[in-house]
Amino acid sequence: MSLGRLLLGLICSFTVLGSSAQVRTGGGGSAPSGPRVPSTTAPSPTSQAVFIHGKVILEGSAAPAESVAIESVCNGAVRRQAYTDLKGNFEFQLGQNSTDRDATESGRDVFTNSGNRGPTQGMGSEFGINLPGKPGNTDSTRPELLGCELRASLAGFKTSSVPLRPDGSSWVLEVGTIVLTRMENIPGATISLTTMSAPPDARRAYEKGQRAVASGKFDDAERDLQKAVGQYPEFAAAWSLLGEVYRQQKKYDSAKQAYSQAIDADSQFLNPYYGMAILAVHESNWNEALKFTDDLLKLNPSVFPLAWLYNAAANYYLGNLDTAEKNARKFEQLDPQHHDLDSKLLLSNIMLGKHDYEAAAKALEEYLALAPNAPNTAQVKAQLHELNQRRAAADR
Question: Which portions of the chain are predicted below pLDDT 70?
Fold first, then answer.
């Protein structure tokens, strides 16, 4: 295989990424699939855990139409704890590691006395409040909650925060209400304000569609979402989620139509732009991929990091090598844990196009160091060998 064909594997992986991006109940994107269903089992009073209740509203007292992430902040360390339900309520138990750490979180488990630890240690295991203290004196077992607070996380909105003030006599804590306010200088958001205007029947159909998506019942979701947009044609979130359902079913033309309807209904809603970008990459339609990722990044450059990588690939195929390199490196800045190594393969091709054989080889070396057992290891090693031969020839 020639060096110019190396991105074939990259495009295949783009297709997988687009297909496997989890359907969010808010209408698309890469957030976790649907609101997390909080446990209703109360912890034992002797477990020294704290059961947290609260609510998130938009400024003006309306509940967000989509699930919102809840984060704890303790002495600068951030951990994602839960998601709101369809009415803006959230509940979770401190001491129950029910959600995965993401790129916005710090590397320290702030509700244990374990101190700092690496990004993979403790992942997937439960952690609890287990500090020494006298039996019955729960205040003495919770010093790590002092100075801690909860906040909401939703792109395009700023959040208020509520302090964690546990009562030593109770294992249940009502923290009150967190308020989200739209940022004036960032037009794009992952929540559509058109949802607030939807009539009750359309909202109910949309919520049924959300639940069906979360359960993987795409036929049911398609029926409910079609009902929602039929009753309220300006329902951007319902159109976007319908596009996701169609995309999961490989009904790509229908998905494009639904995403386009969402954009027409709310041009500030980010999710359908991302869906259109995924479809464009899947089809190797680089002009479309460039258009929708450009639009997405102008609206909000931080919500979908993969948009930078898709944009870089589009620019590479369209011959804009300087922009492709800049945006591929921007993606790598947003992916410090190297969750997606396609950027290394893309950078190698970009640098090869710029006749910088040393930088092209370095990118492949970094890829092999980070993924020594990847399925394409033999192919990448062969390409690296060819690059090194070119480097040697250029030095002679």
Answer: 1-49, 60-61, 65, 75-76, 95-147, 155-156, 166-171, 183-190, 396
CA gap 130, 147 in Å, rounded: 18
pLDDT at residue number 274: 94
Q: Which helix (H) or strand (E) holds 13?
A: helix 7-20
Q: Report how far residue 270's alpha carbon sits from residue 295's, in angstroms, rounded to the nearest whole number.
A: 9
First-to-last alpha carbon distance for the chain, in angstroms, is 25
pLDDT digit string, tens, across residues 342-383 = 999 999 999 999 999 999 999 999 999 999 999 999 999 999
Q: Which residues does residue 162 pair with via DSSP β-bridges, in sequence order?
A: 150
The per-residue pLDDT for 85 is 83
Question: What is the rounded CA–CA span in Å between residue 232 and residue 205?
Answer: 11
Q: How far apart are CA 290 and CA 313, in angstroms?
A: 9
Strand-pair partners of 70: 82, 152
What are the angstrom distances between the C-alpha of 96 and each of 1, 33, 42, 188, 313? 49, 19, 12, 33, 40
Output the six-digit token pair for 251.
Answer: 């009904």
Q: Which residue, among 132, 83, 79, has the nearest Cα to 109 in the 3D structure? A: 79
Task: Using the structure block, give the residue that is written with the tokens 């190698």.
Answer: 348
- Amino acid residing at 231: Q
CB 185 within 8 A of CB 302: no
How far apart CA 381 and CA 92 sit, in angstroms, is 47
Rounded distance, CA 54 to CA 167, Å? 16
The helices-and-strands tally (H runs, E runs) of the chain is 12, 8
**DSSP secondary structure, 177-224, as one string:** EEEEEE-SS---BSS-GGGGGS-HHHHHHHHHHHHHHHTT-HHHHHHH
Residue 75 has a pLDDT of: 67
Tokens 């190594």 map to which residue?
Answer: 341
CA distances from 66 to 108, 161, 245, 253, 304 (A): 28, 19, 16, 26, 17
Q: Are 105 and 73 in contact (CB under 8 A)?
A: no
Amino acid at 75: N
